[in-house]
UniProtKB/TrEMBL annotation:
Record-stated family: Belongs to the peptidase M14 family.
UniProt record, GO biological process: peptide metabolic process; protein processing
Gene3D superfamilies linked: Carboxypeptidase-like, regulatory domain (2.60.40.1120), Galactose-binding domain-like (2.60.120.260), Zn peptidases (3.40.630.10)
GO CC aspect terms: extracellular space
The protein's name: AEBP1 protein
Lineage, opening ranks: Eukaryota, Metazoa, Chordata, Craniata, Vertebrata
Superkingdom classification of source: Eukaryota
Domain Peptidase M14: 179-518
Keyword match Glycoprotein: yes
Length: 709
């Protein structure tokens, strides 16, 4: 297994070098898959580079324990303009860093052959393992400048020399399956879990991948297969990128853990399963994972570290006005138009060949999101160790008006960061995961590829750290009720099997704590006066410009931080209802139900339509009318009297000749005060032309008498 250069288990002070070209190309940058900054002149670059072309330079790693070394993986410099890599090197070993022994083939120092390009990792295995504490790489030939990225393979044979590192080493006591699972193994494991806990688990698939592999999901609930009114739905997804295997294995371990602990009577797990409907998808991109898994299992490290996704498309293009382009079924940013981030190809990359359509996986995930009323979720990724929350897209900087002074060259023209209306809630959710993680908040070591960007908290807004369009987080927030975050589990995307126990212990408490946050805020049911649930009602929280809608059973959930909120429920055809709801600090959502009464707006709209949707003037009693208004009123009344007479004659003719057509209802304006109480409720059938005419004629005659008096 790797000793941990890529995963940062080997700390910066354990890596030394004979020299460095500059600080941003020091020995600490010589880790496998280390990435350079977005700009070529970035202070931190993507490799260790020596100060000159001498063959006396070396890169050294101190494991701080006796280790049996079995090989090394080398890689060139991560750069868009430089083509630097080592083509051959010697290897030396030591127990005291003073006396070195070169690896030999029995006759002479053995030359190892490295890279042929700057990106592809190359594995060099030692014919015979070597036991030592220190290892050095002595480059002999290279292309361009002397630059190197490295991972060392070996097995520890003694206890670690550092007390602090030893304290962080945890061995899991859970009896789980700690290994990497292929697609077939994953499916078999899910089947075993389902057979062990058939009353609380269900296996289903949300669709197929581009290569025909089913995208499997595991539901964990006390009533699997159905949505229970009042029970929120949670989701964990992993495997957006094919080479990010840790999230996949953590979700498979979580399935086993929930099943075993539920059977053992763990009250925390039993409460979570009983009160929450949990959905787990370990692999959203099974095609990409199979490619990476085969490469790693066959020790073919060529390109697996750079695999992203096979067939995964973006979440569509949604502009800043919040209107979806080409969505089927259509999604609209109805929560707060104007804040919709440009959802194009983001984490689910790879729009299909030239036709601009989404991949099968993306369409399946979108349909799955639309079908289930998710409240909270997270997608597990790799390559960093932090929690990222929306918005992931930064609003483009406004164009400079004509005639305005152009910004100075040294001014940084950065896009505008746009915070969500639920920014405080997202920060709390992110902190709940990061603070429960065993190492995520240890930011003094810096990030995986650059200095810490989380302000020593382990959390960051996506647009501030790595702006991108089309992330699942933005799509979920703008088009569904679900609050979703991205959890980056570590620097090593595909850790060795021997590290899975440690990673499970690092994340176990975080995974459970984050799920429990779904029961924070308010919840309730929206019904009418007869007790019937009202689906698709809108829940509005005062001061937060982000609304949620009720599910088919009229139930809703709204995650909120502790405090007092003015909450209203609105629905088509009903009068709105407003309440004050209190959210406490303890886990457990506050019940906040709403009963809505029917409104007369449907009847009013019918009358407005009969009037040609023109405004109906309201005559205020006691207010004097101008002569011009009197004249207009008389003309309207005379015109209406003529219409009424025509209708009366037509009805008279209709009684004698049933084939005569009836007159359409009047579409002229009403010159009198309108009262909705004079008509039948809106839920009954609309009045016929005859009844409408008789009622109106009676009122017009009454007004004529009043005016004459």
């Amino acid at each position: 297994p790797p000793i941990g250069l890529e995963s940062h288990r080997i700390e910066d002070d354990q890596i030394l070098a004979s020299s460095m070209l500059r600080h941003g190309l020091g020995a600490q940058r010589g880790r496998l898959n280390m990435q350079a900054g977005t700009n070529e002149d970035d202070f931190f670059d993507g490799a260790w580079c020596a100060e000159d072309d001498s063959r006396a330079h070396w890169l050294e790693v101190d494991t701080r324990r006796i280790t049996m070394f079995t090989g090394v993986i080398t890689q060139g410099r991560d750069s868009q303009i430089h083509d630097d890599f080592v083509t051959s090197f010697y290897v030396g070993f030591s127990n005291d860093s003073q006396h070195w022994v070169m690896y030999s083939n029995g006759y002479e120092e053995m030359m190892f052959y490295g890279n042929v390009d700057k990106d592809t990792p190359v594995l060099s295995e030692f014919p015979e393992p070597v036991v030592a504490r220190y290892i050095r790489i002595y480059p002999q030939r290279w292309n361009g400048s002397l630059c190197l990225r490295l991972e060392v393979l070996g097995c520890p044979l003694s206890a670690v020399s550092s007390y602090y590192t030893q304290q962080n080493e945890v061995t899991s006591t859970d009896n789980l399956d700690f290994r990497h699972h292929s697609y077939k193994d994953m499916r078999q494991l899910m089947k075993v879990v389902n057979e062990e806990c058939p009353t609380i688990t269900r296996i289903y698939n949300i669709g197929k991948s581009s290569r025909g592999l089913k995208i499997y999901a595991m539901e964990v609930s006390d009533n699997p297969g159905e949505h229970e009114t009042g029970e929120p739905e949670f989701r964990y997804t992993a495997g957006l990128h094919g080479n990010e295997a840790l999230g996949r294995e953590l979700l498979l371990l979580l399935m086993q853990f929930l099943c075993k602990e539920y059977q053992d009577g763990n009250p925390r797990v039993r409460g979570l399963v009983t009160d929450t409907r949990i959905h787990l998808i370990p692999s959203l991109n099974p095609d990409g994972y199979e490619l990476a898994h085969e490469a790693v299992r066959g020790q073919q490290v060529e390109q697996w570290g750079r695999m992203w996704s096979a067939g995964m498309g973006g979440y569509g293009a949604v502009g800043w006005d919040g209107k979806a382009v080409g969505c089927s079924p259509p999604f609209t940013a109805h929560h707060h138009p104007g804040l919709a981030a440009g959802l194009q190809a983001g984490h689910l990359r790879g729009v299909r060949e030239g036709d601009g359509t989404w991949s099968m996986e993306t369409r399946a995930v979108m349909a799955w999101m639309d079908k289930n009323p998710f409240v909270l979720g997270a997608n597990l990724q790799g390559g960093e160790k932090l929690v990222s929350f929306p918005f992931d897209t930064a609003r483009p900087s406004p164009p400079t008006p004509a005639g305005a002074p152009h910004p100075l060259d040294y001014e940084d023209e950065r896009p505008e960061l746009q915070e969500t209306p639920d920014h405080a809630v997202f920060r709390w959710l992110a902190i709940s995961y990061a603070s429960a993680h065993l190492t995520m908040t240890e930011t003094f070591r810096g990030g995986c590829h650059a200095p810490d960007v989380t302000d020593a908290m382990g959390i960051v807004q996506g647009a501030k750290w790595h702006p991108q369009a089309g992330s699942m987080n933005d799509f979920s927030y703008l088009h569904t009720n679900c609050l979703e975050l991205s959890i980056y589990l570590g620097c090593d995307k595909f850790p060795h099997e021997s590290e899975l126990q440690q990673e499970w212990e690092n994340n176990k408490e975080s995974l459970l704590t984050f799920m429990e946050q779904i029961h924070r805020g308010i919840k309730g049911v929206v019904t009418d006066q007869q007790g019937e649930p009202i689906a698709n009602a809108t829940i509005v929280v005062g001061g937060i410009n982000h609304n949620v809608r009720t599910a088919s059973g009229g139930d809703y959930w709204r995650i909120l931080n502790p405090g007092e909120y003015r909450v209203s429920a609105r629905a088509e055809g009903y009068n709105p209802s407003v309440k004050t709801c209190h959210v406490l600090y303890d886990i457990g959502a506050t019940q906040c139900n709403f009963v809505l009464s029917r409104s007369n707006w449907k009847r009013i709209r019918e009358i407005m339509a009969m009037n040609g949707n023109r405004p109906i003037r309201r005559v205020v009693p006691g207010q004097p009318m101008t002569p011009r208004e009197h004249l207009r009123l008389r003309m309207r009344l005379r015109h209406r009297m003529r219409l009424r007479e025509q209708m009366r004659l037509r009805r008279l003719n209709a009684t004698m000749d049933t084939s005569s057509p009836t007159a359409p209802p009047s579409t002229t304006a009403l010159p009198f005060p309108f009262s909705s109480t004079a008509y039948t409720p809106w839920s009954q059938e609309p009045p016929t032309a005859g009844t409408w005419e008789m009622d109106t004629e009676t009122e017009v005659v009454a007004e004529l008498v009043t005016e004459t008096e």
